Fold this sequence. Notes:
- By secondary structure, the chain is of the alpha+beta class.
- It has five domains: 3-181, 3-Layer(aba) Sandwich (Rossmann fold), CATH 3.40.50; 194-278, Translation factors (Elongation Factor Tu (Ef-tu), domain 3, Beta Barrel), CATH 2.40.30; 297-368, 2-Layer Sandwich (Alpha-Beta Plaits); 375-481, 2-Layer Sandwich (Alpha-Beta Plaits), CATH 3.30.70.240; 485-600, 2-Layer Sandwich (Alpha-Beta Plaits).
- The protein has an eight-stranded antiparallel sheet with strand order 11-10-16-7-8-15-12-13.
- β25 (430-436) and β26 form a beta hairpin.
- α1 (19-29) crosses α6 (171-181) and α11 runs antiparallel to α13 (588-595).
- It is elongated.
- The N and C termini lie far apart (63 Å).
Amino acid sequence: MDSSHIRNFCIIAHIDHGKSTLADRLLQLTGTISDREMQEQVLDNMDLERERGVTIKASAVRMNYRAQDGNDYEINLIDTPGHVDFAYEVSRALQACEGAVLVVDASQGIEAQTLANLYLALEHDLEIIPVINKIDLPSARPDEIAQDLEDLLGIPKEDMVKVSAKTGVNVGDVLEAVVKRVPPPKGDFARPLQALIFDSHYDSYKGVIAYVRIVNGQFSRRDGLRMMSTGIPFEPVEIGVFNPNMKVTDDLAAGEVGYIATGLKTVQECRVGDTITLRTDGASDPLPGYKEAKPMVFAGFYPVDAEDYPNLRDALDKLKLNDASLVYQPENSQALNFGFRVGFLGLFHMDIIQERLEREYDLDILATAPSVEYQVKLTNGETIVIDSPAEMPDETRVAEVLEPWMKIQIFTPDTFIGPIMELLNKKRGKFVSMEHLDRSRVNITSLLPLAELIVDFYDRLKSATKGYASLDYQFDSYLPDKLVKLDVLVNSVPVDALAMIVHREDAYHKGQRLVSKLKELIPRQLFPVPIQAAIGNKIISRADVKAVRKDVLAKCYGGDITRKKKLLEKQKKGKRRLKMIGNVEVPQEAFMAVLRLDEEE
């Protein structure tokens, strides 16, 4: 098709503002999917995506549309993830488009992810089409939201499309706006091939399937190709477009969106953001913006049943085939035996992976408390990177510990500024700025340690603001602080899976709370069990789980007191010997207690 009749756009929005529902209506309206094949969230392939109502993987679909001007257009829609953990995938998908439909809920208004994705779209110089969704709700405020968007974007409110994706009202106007306002792709057929990979997945028969936008040049299925960042050559198994299922074509040209079945066996060889070119006479420079996705949050995954270790390894291998950002390596814990140290993009990504392992591979998993990557400067001048408290060197060798800090933006009604500031102070946050978005909403920018953010910050923020605040965050820098390793000893044996890295000022209180919590959770033995929290060699808190008492004096009905003393002494010796060889089982709930420490403040 003539590239002047091609339109490439994506839909961006905050979570649950109706992005996938609008995509469903567009597919129905253009006849891409028949009513018989239609189901809710048709572009979300995973059951988990449907249940949680959130897009986890990007997807693309080609629609053919006859506009009111009588011309036929090829419209490529790229549906992007909405969660902040997948911001890199969103940025690559935006680079594959010329326009973005910005969906805003008519009752909720502008929220954190709305603005974060909007700024990303503006950075990529995309044409923005504001769409106000859910106008059928009783609480909808379409005129008020339109005014807010006009103040933010400078686009006249008369040009904004007001729709109800659920009922289908005015959805056709969205397609007309895309045709009229989104510019056609600028690609040059004559230049060497440059194809941007904006997503990929693994297929057991065709290898890695790369979702591509052809920026320049053209190619057929018989051409030899190569990856530009790794130099890996390959012959395409097949090429085609999404309609919405895969439809084989003979060639793809500049401006088009489609897929290439590469035959490669791992997603690491075909990374999101990379450029594909011809093996011979290819482009000399890759497209800008490529970087490897870097894990921010780390946790230990251990099988509850030790015999499931090989099954957990196989399950992680299979998940990695579809998720290049997943990083893991074997780990051995004294308390939990064999498992894996797994790296994630964020806490939501960790939650999704854990649920997929348990659901799709029928595994019972114990996850340790999440931690972040620290940079530790040693006294000999060396710097090491650790992602587990167990790797922390001895305190005498540590000169300085640097932790990752995030730049966070909180969008909230101005009535909740006080509780939010209190929460930020409690979590070691540093206030940066505050700006008023409209008459009643403010944007608070702050710096916060990632370690404080990942545990329960979002839940506490929602509680403090009655659910009205929304949050967006991005990595800022590594900063030094007074951080120490808090060890937990059960029966004088350190339990590495319960260790954590904390701020020195919080160490005493956290140690005290953790010891008290473990005292409730660890079952009583036939001997007393001391539970201690320690920093280095210094014990900062202790509690004892009392022994289960057996009444050895029950058979002494009378007689001399020395008989009773003799029996009690015998019992004491037995318990001392038992304590030396006794092995205390630490229950699963104890490891979860580390996560819930802050809830009890």
